[in-house]
């Protein structure tokens, strides 16, 4: 059985960059208002009894993710909001429940989170922004990406043992597209590079996290669970011998 992702998974897009025509803008630092600039306000005066209450934690997390230009570590959110990572996690789960029937999603990769549009909106977002649909990945790239996604962290030798073909060219393509990255080195002879998927991988396939990957067929997944980085893959039988696959 071949490796590959469902071709129907849509693309998720992050928030567009602001332009000079926007009515609202990401706020970096403290926003000065005319009231702040008044010099006739007595020093040390108590706040107005009608002043609005501070937003709840979920609203604060939502606001920070909205203005962030890239995925934010959960610990960074906790640091800025002067709370615990556990409290931020609870706020994120609250947002995820709120967004379930709406147009936004909380996307996660390892300890980082990002606010993105729902995958089902991809076609309309692309049309609105005048974006061209990115080209499809080749079958070789999808096969390699599938192996990395389900078996990460994984070495090039492990990938090639599963595919039965050299994967240098495909790995270079996936690295160039930002769908995979080097995540470390295996603790084996030669210290080979370990590969894993990226945030761009989640966006490309419209996944909120790696937990949303389709279940791996038992015939493939059952024999791969015990493998450690650098160990020979547990797929039964010799790999199919094919000529070197240079397609991207």
How would you describe this structure in keywords?
3-stranded antiparallel β-sheet, Arc Repressor Mutant, subunit A, 248 residues, 6 strands, 10 helices, alpha+beta
Detailed description of the structure:
- The protein has helices at 34-37, 57-67, 74-80, 85-99, 122-129, 139-151, 156-163, 168-176, 199-205, 218-221; strands spanning 72-73, 104-109, 112-117, 154-155, 180-185, 193-197.
- Strand 5 (180-185) and strand 6 (193-197) form a beta hairpin.
- It is an alpha+beta fold and 248 residues long.
- Among the domains are: 9-17 and 56-133, Winged helix-like DNA-binding domain superfamily/Winged helix DNA-binding domain (Arc Repressor Mutant, subunit A, Orthogonal Bundle), CATH 1.10.10.10; 139-221, Arc Repressor Mutant, subunit A (Orthogonal Bundle).
Give the structure's gist in a few sentences.
With 248 residues, the protein is α+β, with helices and mostly antiparallel strands. The protein is built from ten helices and six strands, in the order ααβααββααβααββαα. The strands form two sheets. A three-stranded antiparallel β-sheet has the order 1-3-2. It has a three-stranded antiparallel β-sheet with strand order 4-6-5.
């Amino acid at each position: 059985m071949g490796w590959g992702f469902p071709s129907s998974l849509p693309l998720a897009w992050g928030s567009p960059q602001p332009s000079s025509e926007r009515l609202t803008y990401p706020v970096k630092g403290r926003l000065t208002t005319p009231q702040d600039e008044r010099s006739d306000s007595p020093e040390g005066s108590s706040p107005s009894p009608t002043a609005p209450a501070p937003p709840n934690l979920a609203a604060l997390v939502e606001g920070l993710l909205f203005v962030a230009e890239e995925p934010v570590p959960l610990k960074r959110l906790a640091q800025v909001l002067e709370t615990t990572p556990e409290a931020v996690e609870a706020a994120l789960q609250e947002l995820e429940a709120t967004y379930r029937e709406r147009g936004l999603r909380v996307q996660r990769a390892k300890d980082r989170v990002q606010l993105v549009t729902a995958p089902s909106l991809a076609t309309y977002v692309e049309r609105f922004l005048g974006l061209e649909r990115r080209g499809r990945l080749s079958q070789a790239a999808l096969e390699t990406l599938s192996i990395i996604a389900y078996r990460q962290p994984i070495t090039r030798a492990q990938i090639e043992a599963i595919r039965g073909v050299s994967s240098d060219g495909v790995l270079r393509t996936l690295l160039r597209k930002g769908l995979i990255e080097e995540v470390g080195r295996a603790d084996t002879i030669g210290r080979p590079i370990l590969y894993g998927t990226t945030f761009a991988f989640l966006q490309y396939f419209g996944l909120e996290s790696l937990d949303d990957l389709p279940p791996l067929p038992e015939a493939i997944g059952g024999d791969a669970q015990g493998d450690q980085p650098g160990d020979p893959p547990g797929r039964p039988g010799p790999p199919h011998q094919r000529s070197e696959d240079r397609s991207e």
